Prior knowledge:
Elements: H1 6-30, H2 49-60, H3 71-85, E1 92-95, E2 98-100, E3 104-106, E4 109-115, E5 123-129, H4 139-156, E6 166-171, H5 174-177, H6 179-184, E7 193-201, E8 209-212, H7 218-224, H8 235-241, H9 249-255, E9 259-265, H10 284-301, E10 314-319, E11 322-327, H11 330-351, H12 357-387, H13 399-425, H14 427-448, H15 454-469, H16 474-500, H17 505-516, H18 519-524, H19 528-551, E12 561-562, E13 564-570, E14 573-579, E15 611-614, E16 624-629, E17 634-640, E18 647-653, E19 661-663, E20 682-687, E21 694-699, E22 709-715, H20 722-729, E23 732-733, E24 740-746
Parallel strand pairs: 3-20, 5-6, 5-7, 7-9, 12-23, 13-24
Antiparallel strand pairs: 1-4, 2-3, 4-6, 8-9, 10-11, 13-14, 14-15, 16-17, 17-21, 18-20, 18-22, 19-21, 22-24
Helix pairs in contact: 1-16, 2-3, 2-4, 2-10, 4-10, 11-14, 11-15, 12-13, 12-14, 12-17, 13-14, 13-17, 13-19, 14-15, 15-16, 16-17
Amino acid sequence: MMTNDTRERRPALAGLLGMLVLVLVVTMLWAQRPPAALGVEAAQAEFSAARALAVLRGVLGDERPHRLGTAANAMVRERVVAAFAGIGLSAELRSRFVCAEYGVCGTPHNLLLRLPGAAAEPAVLLTSHYDSVGAGPGAGDAGSGVAALVEIARALQTDTGARREILLLVADGEEAGLLGAEAFVREPEFARVGAVVNLEARGTRGRANLFETQPGNAAIIRAVAPALPYPTLSSLAYEIYTRMPNNTDFSVYKREGRAGVNFAFIEGGERYHTPLDDLAHLDPGSLQQIGANALAATRALAVSGVAVQDTRNRVYFDFGGVAWHWPEAANRWLLLATLGLAMFGCVRARRAGLLTWPRVAGATVLLLLTLLLAAGASLAMATAWRAAGATPMPWTANGSWLQLATSALGVVLAWSAGLWFVRRHGAGAWFAAVLVVLLLAAGAFVSVAPGASPLALLPLLVATSGYALAPTRSLAGALLLAAVIWLANANGLLALYPSLGPGALPGLALLIALVAAPLAVAVDALGSRARGRLLAAGWIGTLALAIAAALAAPYSPDTRAPLALREVSGPGLRRLQLLGVSEGEAADWQQALPALPASERVPPWAASDATVVALPGSGAPPPRVRIEALDATHDQILIESDDPEAVLGLALPAALPLAALRINGEAFAAPIRRTRANAGDWRTVHVYPGQGPVRVLVEWPAGLRRAGYALALHTGLSPDLAGLAQARDRVAVTAHFGDARIGYVPLAFPAVSVPES
């Protein structure tokens, strides 16, 4: 058993202070920090964020939202064409009516440009999208990608020598449901595409991560990873992303069998799809990283003869400014090697009298229970914060307090359990238990989520090697193990909350507890008095941080509540839905509603968790509808509106499959990897403006009652709600589609005579 004499107190204290410095340095100076932006004086062959920002300012103009099918969208498109013309490139307009799997249709107006190359080889497609949501200007999502494409195209024109053809696609309609990508895969040029580089954003800042490839990524990672000037890449991110209900344009190209890489920065999620996704909040460093890495990836994939298709996978990550990767098949051999080294070290430690197998088993069970307790306690703390109003939306201004309190909770729980065990059964068994837990995690990753395996394998490789050589040096081994767990996981830990919001806090507490667990050996070596004081300070600090997180303001001028106002009007009914804020939340905008009684009555297709209030007056006009019964199972529905920018739609029974519909003669695209679930008993189908009247052919399944509603969704609110919008804007911002008014009318299907059999 380790003794707590003076010889160990000093190195233990030095080690703990060193670990604290390491955590601070990695957090503040390395992890999640984009590079500095290059100025306009940068070399012509390089990517310059300053030059790209100048392009973006010109493209966005007055920073109006510019969703698909609007006049503002057309103006942005003209500015994009002019930006490319300014560097000597001519854009081709490609417009095509398509329907996506999400129940949306429209006519995206894509811009296609060419940089010539070897026609005999597959082309490289470099792409982003220029449309925004209805709520904001989309400076990050994805105006940053469009400006990067212009700057990349300028830099690529300085290249000499043979290369593959490079196609640049500035897509439209991504926010509406990946419509631009669905349209492009129907163009003849798509058949020539061999690899794709896609640029996206889900925020306004942070490191631009290579977060997605495709199954069989070995060849493309070997080609791209070494070329990245600012490598931020993670196969862990890909493992997480594939389990989320999210898609980008790259998802369509991947469905069609294309290889590629997808880049995005995701911090600043509180501004995503809001008016705050603007030029003032866009980080030039994030633009520098995504643009420079996309330029390098494009050049790497355009090299004549480079392979992009493969059946094998590689795991990949960045560490110390270098991209690392190895074959996925090597994971099992690395796992076996670390298992062998750990067993060798444990056998030597047992012979030295530092542990017994029952004690290792007991310590392992205790550590696993502690990790689960950390996650559970964090979940309870997050629930308390939510009840106190500290987390009314996914990303809040007090996010740093939430993460600090959660991390402190993980540390004190790990130290409390570890100290209890070490004092009674020795440091050797506790140290071995941490290795066992890491081995269990590595085994699970290798089997279920191979892309996550470096998180456990890298610390194991270092720690078990040291353990096999010096199994009796428990203090040194514990400090080394904590350091390598932190270094291997720092990027992922610091990205958890920006990626997932409060839902990630239990995972953060669990992982921080695992980092802190080996340090219980060092804390024990400080001596009983220092040990007790440190543990007491830890619990008091955790409580203080939790209280500070609960009391800190969740909103700020740069982090505001998302509150979209949606007016729903129909025969004898006019209601207002407050989308994004709970009914019980005390906010200033509620003061504008004293004369509006609460109401739960809304059309069945509009049911949601939103607050609903009754409104006087008639509201938005419904669309004009004509229905023609073609036969016993087919109807044709014609929908139109006097508003040229209205989104027209239908609400139909959820039991009616999308395959039973034809919109303007078009069927819906094949699913990508998941289909959104229907909400309740109804599904909605929307058609974005730009093609005149909408013709819908419906094939009714046998036994399904013919029913539905026709909808016209108009941008903005009725004039009598201007005061409400002004009150909202003092404390909140609209989000996603933005403020809107919907006029609807029930569909009156004509009687159909069924011929006798």
